[in-house]
Amino acid sequence: MTLGELPLAPVTPLSEAAADSGYVMTMDAEGWPTALGRLDDGDAGLPPAVLLPAPMTMVALCTGGALDLLALNPYGALVHDGGRTLGVLEQHTVSAYLVTLSARGTLRSDVPSPLDAVLAGAYATPVARVVCRCGLLTTLAEYDPDFPPACPGGGAEAAPHPLAIRAE
Predict the structure, then answer these.
(1) Considering only CA atoms, which of 32, 33, 35, 10 is closest in space to residue 23?
(2) How far apart are CA 98 and CA 90, in angstroms?
(3) Which of 48, 87, 140, 151 is most buried, by the most CB atoms less than 10 A from its CB?
């Protein structure tokens, strides 16, 4: 089953959110999400947005490197189809599927198949959009909280430094 076929929670742009809105997202000038959270996050700000392509399967998400990106957002990830946001794949949905895979013994230990080398249909890479404390928006294709990536630095004279995630 693809992520676009799963039940997804609705999300509203922060600029259009009402007091009873569930999930809200902020977007950059080009219309791409930069953060995902809830209005009641208050002063803490919204965590970084994790973007997953709608054609990706749950098996591919849970057995590949994209699973590590979910550590960046406690709520889940935004599912995208082209430039359109379909909704939020919530963490509890992923957790329930991980339990199923673990019970079957297929969690990140599948035997390689010849079909693994073939990309069916349009392919998109899962990414996380993270704003560093220096203000630079960075797109990550992988994430390890023990070894954060380097930020090239914002501004003309800024030097590279460890990425420090800023809440939006």
Answers:
(1) 10
(2) 13
(3) 48
